[in-house]
Amino acid sequence: MARDSDKRNFALREDGDESSVFSGGTPRQAALKAARRLDPADSEDEADRQEIRLREKGTHKVHIYEAWAWVETAPDDKPDWMPGDITKGNVSKEGVEHLDDI
User: Fold this and answer.
1) Are 38 and 75 in contact (CB under 8 A)?
2) Distance CA 82, CA 80 (A)
3) Less Cβ crowding at N or C end of the chain, within 10 Å?
4) 68: buried, middle or exposed (CB in 10 Å: 19+, 13-18, 0-12)?
5) pLDDT of residue 11
């Protein structure tokens, strides 16, 4: 697992605007966090797949993922603070794009 000093920041790009920043040791870890913010479906099979683009801060690299989210019942051994239904997400890497300008 990455230490805090090994975490990288990734900005979510939507129409050239970078509205949110997600951190993680890898681009996929940040993409999974971003995927959980999508509008969730009732099951993984019914989830709409959307493209998300994450630019690694300090670079011109944009990591492109297909992402989807769904709602699931929390596990039986969940902590007391966790709600009964949780949002889960998944991603599939589509590629990397290099920007000329940020």
Assistant:
1) no
2) 6
3) N
4) buried
5) 95
Model confidence over 58-82: pLDDT tens digits?
Answer: 999 999 999 999 999 999 999 999 9
One DSSP character per residue, 27-75 reads: HHHHHHHHHTTS--BSSTTTPPPEEEEEEETTSSEEEEEEEEEEEEEPP
Is 12 in a helix, a strand, or coil?
A: strand
Residue tagged 């889960």 (tokens): 88
Q: What is the pLDDT of residues 36-65, one digit of tens each?
A: 999 999 999 999 999 999 999 999 999 999
Nearest-angstrom CA–CA distance, 28 and 45: 21
Which residue carries 């492109």 as its tokens?
64
Question: pLDDT > 70: what percent of the chain?
Answer: 94
